[in-house]
Design a protein that fits this description.
5-stranded antiparallel beta sheet, Peptidase_S11_N, protease, Peptidase_S11, two-stranded antiparallel ribbon, peptidoglycan synthesis, 40% helix
């Protein structure tokens, strides 16, 4: 903003048209990446953005959307023994634990609880397969036509659980239009309360919320096959950006580069 005002002032004084140079496209390490404007889905940069990739726990973005649209935040979730036994990242749920859907969603998104994802799916739709069917139908409706889910958490299914960076961008842009979604994914710390046990204090695994100016979401992910993944978002003024990084050993740096480039692109276009 200040740079644009300075250039405008100089152009008025010297009677010349001074424009910002177009930003240099970023060099990112991710196997697939994209940065887009959330309100229009306009792509500002992409690298293999439509290549088929494993989403890992970024899957939970679609789980959150589905649960918010099909469930009630005050509904009581009861954790089953199979939910509690779910492998991978965990909210440390025990069979018989009871909590509201709202608390389960915060737990799922902040610490990437696979156990919470399964409990949410079972309680919202009656079964995990029924919930996943709703996820897939909604993803297709959003426009994510190269995406297919077989579970609500992203644990490996090397044949039938896949997405693209572009599709994840579309899904996230859709989710950010829901105030409840936006609030959950931007929360850094939360007390997950239970009806029949002590509360658990959780912290968001998304480091950018503490380090990147304007960061307001969204979700980390990792499996051996998927590598380190990240869907990141940031807002400055009226510009909301979504960045997707899939399979990168430098996901935090890649995300910052993509978001920086995105904001520079918008700024450059506005000065022309």
């Amino acid at each position: 903003m200040y740079r644009r005002l300075i250039l405008l002032f100089l152009s008025m004084i010297f009677g010349v048209n001074i424009a910002l140079a177009a930003p240099t496209p970023p060099q990112v390490e991710a196997e697939a990446a994209i940065v887009m404007m959330a309100n229009t889905n306009q792509v500002l940069f992409e690298k293999n953005s439509k290549g088929i990739m494993y989403p890992a726990s970024t899957t939970k973005i679609m789980t959150l959307i589905t649960a918010l649209e099909k469930g009630n935040s005050n509904d009581i979730i009861t954790v089953s023994s199979s939910d509690a036994a779910c492998e991978g990242s965990s909210l440390e749920l025990k069979a018989g634990n009871q909590l509201t859907l709202k608390n389960a969603l915060y737990g799922m998104m902040l610490v990437s609880g696979n156990d919470a994802a399964e409990a949410i799916a079972e309680n919202v739709a009656g079964s995990i397969p029924a919930f996943v069917e709703i996820m897939n139908a909604k993803a297709e409706k959003i426009g994510a036509t190269s995406t297919h889910f077989t579970n609500p958490h992203g644990l490996p299914d090397p044949i039938n659980h896949y997405t693209t960076a572009y599709d994840l961008g579309l899904i996230t842009a859709y989710g950010m239009k829901n105030p409840d979604f936006a609030k959950i994914v931007s929360t850094q710390e939360y007390d997950v309360n239970f009806l029949n046990r002590s509360a658990i204090h959780v912290r968001n695994t998304n480091k950018l919320l503490n380090t990147y100016p304007g960061s307001n979401g969204v979700k980390t992910g990792y499996t051996n096959d998927a590598g380190d993944c990240l869907v990141a978002s940031a807002k400055r003024g009226d510009i909301q950006l979504i960045a997707v990084i899939l399979n990168s050993d430098y996901r935090w740096d890649d995300a910052a580069k993509l978001l920086d480039y995105g904001f520079q692109q918008v700024e450059s276009k506005r000065t022309k």
